[in-house]
Structures are given as structure tokens and as C-alpha cells.
Amino acid sequence: MVLILILMGVSASGKSYIGNLISQGLDAPFIEGDDLHPPSNIQKMKSGIPLDEEDRVPWLNAVKNEFINISKTSSKPYIFVACSALKYNYREFLRNVPDNNDIKVWFLYLKGSKELLQQRIIERKDHFMKLNMLESQLNTLEEPNPDSEERIIIIDISKEVDKIKEEILEKISMI
Q: What does UniProt give as the signal peptide span (predicted)?
């Protein structure tokens, strides 16, 4: 069985950084969801225009197809994916892998305060997501609840990166 571990959350929550860090440490594949956006989505976000459902559907399909394809050729027990997955129905779409009992999709929700996220966005260089887009993402976010949604792990991102990494490794070892 392959565990697909989707690091989810709004911009600047650390999806890419933490996903890369952990996947390198475990020598596991890492998929950067932002790389799978079509150029039109990137242009919209650079222009400060929030993505709509029509923009997200092909992108979510690309993310799902990518982790399914990699799972077919990888011998590793984990595949890490950075993908915002802000809405419940996006997570359900990604979680549902038909005709494949060899894949289990889990979400690691990287949760932080608005102030922390704003600070991180301000400190970032050369990223298409700008500060004015954070509010749109926070408004879109349907926070996952482990009591009512399957395969969710909530990670507090206000801690140091080493502590976040330790917590994630500990929690995924218990899956």
C-alpha cells in the first residue's frame, strides 16, 4: 500500500517547504501541486484574481493523476503532495481513488494564524501568491475536522520546523 500524504492549507502554511524536507529525509517522492497549475491559473493569481471552481477542476485532476501515476512506479511507502485542498469537496475528490485499494490518501492540514501566514507571505520572494490573495484563500478554506472527515491530521505550524517535522513523522508512523 502507498500512503499519499497531502500537505494542505492556505498559501504560506509551509506545504512545499515541509513536504520537500520530509520527502527528502525519507527518500520519498514529492509532488509540488503548484507546478501542475496551467499557465492561465498562475497568471490569474499573479494578477491578484482568485481562482474559481472552473480553474480548480483541471488542476485537481492533474494533481490526482500525478500521484496515481507515481504510485504505480514508486517502490516507496509514501508520496508527499503539496496541494491547498481548501474545500471539503476537493479533499473528497482527491481522497477517492477508484478501483485501487493500494492507495490511501491522508491530509496533513498545516494550520496557522492569519498573522503568521501574513508575515510569511511578506517575507517570501518571487512567489506568485501575494498578500492580498490570503484573505480569499482564508474565505474559501473549509477547515477539515477529524471528527467528521476521514484521514485528517492537523499540524500547528507556529512551532519550529524541526518540531513540525517530528510531529508529522510520528503521526504518519501510526497510520
A: 1-16
The pTM of the full predicted model, rounded to 2 decimals, is 0.93
Tens digits of per-residue pLDDT, 120-152?
888 876 655 556 678 888 999 999 999 999 999
Q: How far is the C-alpha of 33 from the C-alpha of 154, rounded, in Å?
A: 19
Instruction: Give the C-alpha separation, 68 to 53, whole Å.
Output: 22
Tens digit of pLDDT for each residue in 77-103?
999 999 999 999 999 999 999 776 789
CA distance 41 to 65: 18
Domain harbouring 15, CATH code:
3.40.50.300
Q: How far is it, in rounded angstroms, from Cα 17 to Cα 142?
A: 22
Range of the domain at 17: 2-173
Alpha helix locations (H) across the chain?
15-26, 39-46, 53-73, 88-95, 114-123, 131-140, 161-173
- Specify whether the CB–CB gap between 38 and 45 falls below 8 A: no
